Amino acid sequence: MAGSTLASPTANAPVPGVAKRKHVSPGMESWLRFRRHRLAVAGTIVLGLLVLSVLLGPILWPVAINEIDFSAMLQGPSWAHPLGTDDLGQDVLARMLYGGRISLAVGLCAMFVAIGVGVLIGAIAGMARGSVDTALMWVTDLFLSLPQLPLLLVLIYLFRDVLKEIAGPEIGVLVLIIVVIGGLRWMPVARLVRAQFFSLREKEFVEAARALGASTSRQVVRHILPNALGPVIVAATIDVAVAIIAESTLSFLGLGVPPDIPTWGRILFDAKDYLDFAPHWAFFPGAAIFLTVLCINYIGDGLRDALDPRRVI
Fold first, then answer.
1. Beta-carbon-side half-sphere exposure of residue 116 (alpha carbons within 13 Å)
2. Rounded CA separation 170/157 (Å)
3. Could you tell me which residues come within 8 angstroms of residue 1 by beta carbon, excluding any fewer than 6 positions away?
4. Per-residue pLDDT, 45
5. Could you tell me the CA-to-CA distances from 53 to 47, 61, 186 in Å, in that order?
6. Rounded-to-integer distance, Cα 86 and Cα 140, Å
7. What is the mean pLDDT of residues 57-80?
8. How far apart are CA 105 and CA 269, in angstroms?
């Protein structure tokens, strides 16, 4: 009909060559970025298997860690002892499964100490101005300038016996190791959080919250800190790896947990004099430390890419 307007059948058709983008939540978008990092995914799988092994292994392999069998001293891997035995005939697999719990627990707890202290100091310095910020950064630079390994050894040596008397030989030494390792790893986190706060506190959404009367604590908890957690999570993965290596170093030097607690580092310390004719004793705990730290570092790389908003899928 003349004068009438007929709707074109292609009026609402999609334009050729232009794909319609599905809405993806920020969490799903981060997961898609992380999934593209193949080494990070592989590291997550391997680390998950290691964690399941140390958690469920003693149930599936119920061999006493202190069961002595002199007739099986320094035997290589076999069906009876898949990872061999030590100089007392003790099963290395059972001791590694038990010690892995302690090594991973020390790494995680020391990371929480470092992240907690670092986020607190970094947030205060990032929101404060003038003398408070200057004083906190002076303390941070002071701790950064200290030689960490010698200081770690001195603190363990000075306070180990005191905490043994207070909390017992096992709990006291573990608490001391966790506090000292975590207490010497908060400085990079504090500087990172401070830089994030300096950047975020001038953003429009923080200015809007401030204009609406939000208190400083509400600005930090609801608006600034959640947006600063991406780099902190990446730093946390690195701190876990560093803490595991530090605990293994202390145990290898004989200043870690008591000799009857078989952490991975302690097993290496006990095996160092038998490398010529019983290399399996040192190889397996060393490989466990290597794999754990490597997987955590790959996961940290994947999280860095996944939490970077500048990257596109």
1. 9
2. 15
3. none
4. 93
5. 10, 10, 30
6. 44
7. 82
8. 19
**Above pLDDT 90, what percent of the chain?**
4
Side-chain half-sphere exposure of 290, counting CA atoms within 13 A: 7
What separation in angstroms does the CA of 52 have from each of 26, 48, 58, 244, 302?
A: 29, 6, 10, 17, 21
Amino acid occupying residue 296: I
**What are residue 302's DSSP bridge partners?**
none
Q: What is the pLDDT of residues 106-127, one digit of tens each?
A: 888 988 999 999 989 988 888 8
Find residue 204's DSSP bridge partners.
none
- C-alpha dihedral, 61 to 66 to 68 to 74, nearest 10°: 70
CA 219, chain centre distance (Å): 27
pTM, two decimal places? 0.78
- Phi and psi torsions of 37, nearest 5°: -85, 95
What is the per-residue pLDDT across 144-166, written as a single tens digit (0 to 9) for each? 888 877 887 888 778 777 777 77
What is the CB-side half-sphere exposure of residue 238 using CA atoms within 13 A?
A: 13
From the number of C-beta atoms within 10 Å of its C-beta (0-12, 13-18, 19+), residue 239 rates as buried
Largest CA distance in the chain: 106
